[in-house]
What we know:
InterPro entries: Gfo/Idh/MocA-like_OxRdtase_N, Gfo/Idh/MocA_Oxidoreductases, GFO_IDH_MocA-like_dom, NAD(P)-bd_dom_sf. The chain is globular.
Amino acid sequence: MTQQLRFIQVGTGGFGGYWCSKVLPAIVHELGAARLVAAVDINPQAHQNIISNVGIDPSRCYTDLRQALEENPCDFVVIVLPAHLHEYAVDLALEFECDILMEKPVSDSMESSCRVYRKVKRAGRKLAVTYSHRFDQDKQTLQQYVQSGLYGRLHYLIGRFTSNNRSAVNDPREYAHHHYLISSAVHQFDIIRSITGSNAKTVYTQSWNPQWAPFKEHSTALVQMEMENGVRVFFEGSKSNATQLNGWSNDYFRAECEFGTLELDRRKLVARSDLGFPHPRTAELPLLEQKHWTHTWLMKMFIDWVNGGEAPPNHLEDNMQCTALQYAAIESGLTGKLVDVQQFLQQHLGRVQQV
Length: 355
Ligand SMILES: NC(=O)c1ccc[n+]([C@@H]2O[C@H](COP(=O)([O-])OP(=O)(O)OC[C@H]3O[C@@H](n4cnc5c(N)ncnc54)[C@H](O)[C@@H]3O)[C@@H](O)[C@H]2O)c1
């Protein structure tokens, strides 16, 4: 029988509010997978989210992470802070010998992400990142069909995430100043890696801001990738469009396979083929079924790992590939040059040997 691990939730407002209302009740109460011992948010009003949804005593809610760690021994922390604070929270968690489950991205720069990687490795601790959209029902189903071989070899993949986020710029929580590829597309890069079953070899990006977009950084990108297994990928992403064609949880991915085209659009997966028996001309494919997807599933896998089970697919090592692809895509968009993703990763890791 596995031990009930103790954890601290760091960040209970903003997206932490979602964790408090949807993820933690399932983990703590429904699955009984771990025990919440404290919560931290610099904004005391945000404590109410965890008090009312998970039922923690208000005396266990802190505004300072160090104090919470000093007063509440725990096995792991869940970090749901803005990206520029991830490294700070990781440092403290490692100081108190905790494992870490953290919201995406690893950090807000390639340099900081590499430092996080080195520090976690040196400390010999476990860290997983919640790139949640890859672990959603529709994307997992497409991945399984592509990798089943039923439709032959994967030829190339097309992806799209397009939305109208222009109205969000007055809301500072909407990352109005962040580059689109940092704030949003990192999820889609992770999905691309999982559907193709490969890390990226090269990336070439054209990114820009249309005249009407109120964003401070590039809000639109057309990205071309070659994966290490030879599969080609084209991805379209924008937060500046007039409509939300394929927004959050409603992505578009089209996998062109040897014997069929698999098209996922707004959570509907359709297979098409003109090649005849045994492939129907058009067939809607059923989505996989399981009780929990995205964050709850990821947190459960993380807890099993800390309890001595297998590492989940979103462990830090895997995430560094995603991080490298993300920052290499940004660099390509800024320089206009094709970037070798593996070289980019090794160069940056090499620069932070000593931490
Ligand atoms: N997986 C997803 O689908 C998804 C969606 C949205 C956000 N996110 C991620 O969630 C994380 C949080 O994003 P957000 O929009 O909620 O950020 P946010 O700026 O709203 O901050 C979240 C909370 O952190 C608190 N906070 C800030 N500084 C703190 C500190 N020093 N100590 C303790 N608490 C502090 C804030 O008061 C707030 O309640 C980011 O990493 C973001 O990328 C993931």
